[in-house]
Every structure is written in C-alpha cells, then in structure tokens.
Amino acid sequence: MNFLKKNNEQKMIKMNNVSKKVIFSAAVIMAIGLTSCKNGAKQENETTTEVSKEMANADISFGVRGNCGMCKNTIEKAANAVDGVDKATWDVDKKKIDVSFNDTKTDAMAIHNAVASSGYDTEKVSGDLEAYDGLPGCCKYDHEMVMNKE
Ligand SMILES: [Cu+2]
Predict the structure, then answer these.
(1) Distance 38 CA to ligand 1 centre (A)
(2) Which residues, at least 6 apart from 118, have a Cβ–Cβ distance to it below 8 Å?
(3) I need a labelling partner for 142 at 20 to 30 A (CA). Which of 7, 30, 124, 128 fits?
(4) From the CA of 140, how far away is ligand 1's center (Å)?
(5) Distance 72 CA to ligand 1 centre (A)
(6) Domain 58-139 carries which CATH code?
(7) Contact 88, 70 (CB under 8 A)
C-alpha cells in the first residue's frame, strides 16, 4: 500500500515535470512572440529623433496604411532614406505620415514612391506587392483601411 502510494506520487511528480516543461516552452514561445510585437509597440511611442541632416524647407503629410510599430519603423525608414528628407513621422492611429524635406532635393512624389516601394499604400501610390508579401504577418495591413484620419 505504502509502496503503491509512493509509486503514484512519483508518477505525479514526473507528470508534473512534463507539464511544467510544456508550460515553460509555451511561455517561452509566447514571450518571443510578444517581445517582437512589444518591440514594435514600444517604438510606436518613441518620437522620431533623427538628427537634422537636411535643411528642411517644406512639410507635407499624407495617408499611409499600416498596422503597428513595426510598420512605423519600415515606413519612416523608407521615407527617411529619400535624399532631402529631414524627418518623417508616421502616426499609427491616424494612418498618416508627416515629412519635412528640402524641396530643392526631393519632392512629394519621390516620398510617396519610396514609402510605396517598402510595401505600404499611400494616398497616391499603391504599395509594392512583393514588398508587402515580405512583411511580417502582423504588418499585413488591410488594403481597404481608411487612411489620413483626423
Ligand atoms: Cu506592422
């Protein structure tokens, strides 16, 4: 009787260990998933602190579709990569980008095209579909999404 009980206890301990392991790996997987999304979300709140590298003399803002903080990174990076762009800030709620740039070096259409080639729809240019396909799952925004919201 005593032996049986002990045996049972050991079984329970073993099972416990197994389920603990399962729970632990599930937690690790979830944490990894959450971290990548949190990273994005965290950057959402940071204001763009690009050091002024251009003499901006013009500002535009236009609608750009996107979902999250990772979208924000991609969109702003694409706009900032345009020669003549001083600062680009995309608003995740308004689905809108504000760009300051030097109009002797670039123009609005070049900025639309740069953002679109990173996979994101702007008011004037549809996002490059190949780039869109390469976006992380959570960034695959809805092409019908309302943009440039107030
Ligand atoms: Cu995203």
Answers:
(1) 11
(2) 74, 75, 77, 78, 127, 128, 131
(3) 30
(4) 7
(5) 7
(6) 3.30.70.100
(7) no
In residues, how long is the chain? 150
Model confidence over 91-124: pLDDT tens digits?
Answer: 999 999 999 999 999 999 999 999 999 999 999 9
Q: Please provide the DSSP assignment of 7-75 as one string.
A: HHHHHHHHHHHHHHHHHHHHHHHHHHHHHHHHHHHHHHHSPP-PPP-S---EEEEEEB---SHHHHHHH
CA gap 148, 146 in Å, rounded:
7
**What residue segments make up the domains of the chain, in order of their start?**
58-139
| SS3 label, residue 89 | strand
Q: Which two tokens stand for residue 55?
A: 């003499």
> What pLDDT, in 10s, does the model give residues 14-51?
555 555 555 455 554 444 444 444 444 444 444 554 45
